[in-house]
Amino acid sequence: MTQAQQIANAIERSIDGPMWHGPALRELLSDVSSEEAAHHPLTGLHSIWEIVAHLAAWVEIAGRRLQGEQGEPSEAVNWLAVSLMTRDAWKIMLEALWRIHQELAQAVNCLTADQLSATLPGRNHSVQAMLQGIVEHDAYHGGQIAVLKRALRTLDTRGF
Ligand code: NI
Asked: Alpha-carbon distance 63 to 49, whole Å?
């Protein structure tokens, strides 16, 4: 397996596992309803839905940076204001999260070692560091999703 294939595999495992730290995103999110995803069980923290949109945004940004795009995402893209919170919209959100990871993994799969070690345009880190950062970002926020699920199901007394 090439280095690129290993990183592509890690991106896919962020969704489908196995991850050594615990459940990967698909398992974590598979039993979360749209109502739960939209809820803010812990005051001042993002909802699961907002976190999922944030993760999808950064995987998409990584894909664009891989194509040479520069610049920073706006705060509106970084933390999207979720307005339509129907069951269908949640399903579409999750499908987008899976698809965007799949697309990034496919783009990474055929990179050469030189492409991986190249510095990203306008930044001081390599393509590889960015891609590993995506996997770490998924794991970091995946842990938050696990805590939010626990809070929704054990702390909340408002009808969940
Ligand atoms: Ni983040």
From this structure: 21
d(CA 31, ligand 1 centre) in Å: 22
Cis amide prior to 41 (ω within 30 degrees): no
Give alpha helix (H) positions in 42-86.
Answer: 48-66, 75-78
Say how many Å lie between the CA of residue 88 and the centre of ligand 1: 25
**Dist. CA 153–CA 132, nearest whole Å:** 32
Give the Å distance between the CA of 79 and the centre of ligand 1: 9
Please tell me the distance between residue 64's alpha carbon and the centre of ligand 1 in angstroms.
17
Split the chain (160 residues) into runs of 10 and give each run's mean pLDDT: 96 95 95 96 92 97 94 88 92 98 97 97 95 98 96 70
Q: 22: which 2 tokens?
A: 């615990």
